[in-house]
Amino acid sequence: MNNILLDSTVCFNKEGTFKLELDKDTTINIESDNVKLYLVTKNNIRVDFNIFNSATIYNITTENITINANIYNNAKLDFYLMTITDKKITNEVNVYHQNKETISNVICHGISYLKGDLKLSVNGYIKKGMIDSICNQSSRIINLDKGKSLIKPNLFIDEFDSIANHSAYTGPFDEKLLFYLETKGISKKEAFNLLLNGFMKLVELPKDYESILDSILNKIQGR
Amino acid sequence: MFKIDKLNVETKDTKRKILKDFSLTINDGEIHAIMGPNGVGKSTLSKVIMHHPDYVINAGTITYNKKILNDLSTDTIARLGIYLLMQDPSIIDGVGMSEALRTALKEREKDSNIYTFITKMKQEIDSLNLPKDVMHRSINKGLSGGERKKNEVLGLKVLKPSFIILDELDSGLDVDSLKVVANNINEYLKEHQDTSVLIITHYSRILDLIKPDFVHEMKDGKIIKTGDITLAKQIEKTGFSGVNEVELNKNYE
User: What's the whole-number mean pLDDT along residues B93-117?
Assistant: First the structure.
């Protein structure tokens, strides 16, 4: 995995796996196919993506962030947002299908714990004429302790010949799942940790990136 | 020995009485079946034994090997050797079957090395005709109803309980899968002869495959009749109410 120091604009024109830490507003252009980007974002920033080829982007954050993704050509974007917070923050993800036959899958999972208040605004836009475009979004936030959350899923679709889906959930972990694990002899604490890890680690992550997520999750587990 | 003595249970929210002076004794190595129509409290009984948070015990005791279970947590009860094979096993996205079972073994301080564990898992997955990748999948994700039941039996064979509760094992299983599951449970019982079983079912077909020593009929939260396999056959033939009518007529005469 490559670590890259950034100017305010960076371009990926080779396929590969890259890890970035962003602490200022940034524009990222993805021109090559098969780019996997592992992001950690800080300091309430805005990140603009211009996606010209298929890309998978992961982002871990504990703070406010605004993501604007413009998808061009026949590109496909898979975007995973992993947010953990004990503060009042807003994460906004805007996906603009700028050409025909573009695809977006936006999956956002968040944990709002202690006195956290996580607002998630996910907006998908398919303009008139962007036929055969597909815009999917799935958002889930688990509230722990006195944590609160709000999800605003919006699909702004002007093209009939397109597909758009969304699902959203906020609330605690399902008691039924905890009971199931406990009937196997797993303590409540371990069962909770299994659910927490399973919820946040949406896909298999590279070890060094997973360890960043683990260090944040440890705060929850040790609270 | 597993014993329930005059157990009275109600739902936490609605205070509806589910079990009324329910008593049952199961000695080591015995297989008991409880039959009854919908809504008499059969599945509730299995959840109450495992201390499900939706139910409150108002009176009576549940004991297992002289230990009172009433106030123990679900995981403690499970670690005493009681295994509930659920009617509708949950799907848990993100938590792997092998990860959960390994954690369960660690909690029992029975964790074997990874090679032994994987070998055991592979062997049991084969004997249950489960998809090979099931150990790496999220728990029950992408599995049919029947495969989910088999996955529960996989858990049973890895965790090696001494008291097994089979809640509606046959629901969702086709004839062939039911045979595979029953064969696996019978094999387990043959290897672990002190293991007791409580079968909760509507139908006698599962009892043709896992032979019970005692059959109980349950109604209105308590056992109203006890017999052997012939009671199950009689219920299958005449229905639950039919059996009760016969019994009432006998009493009347």
Answer: 89
Cβ pair A185:B107 closer than 8 A: yes
CA distance B95 to chain A (A): 5
Which of B53, B78, B138 has its CB closest to that of A184? B78
Q: Count A/B contacts: CB-CB distance under 8 Å.
A: 75
pTM (predicted TM-score): 0.89
- DSSP state, B91? P
Please give the structure tokens belonging to residue A10. 């960076």
Give chain B's domains with CATH numbers. Answer: 2-94+162-252 (3.40.50.300)
Please tell me whether the interface predicted TM-score (ipTM) of this complex is above 0.90: yes
CA distance B50 to chain A (A): 7
**A136 phi and psi angles, rounded to 5 deg:** -115, 140
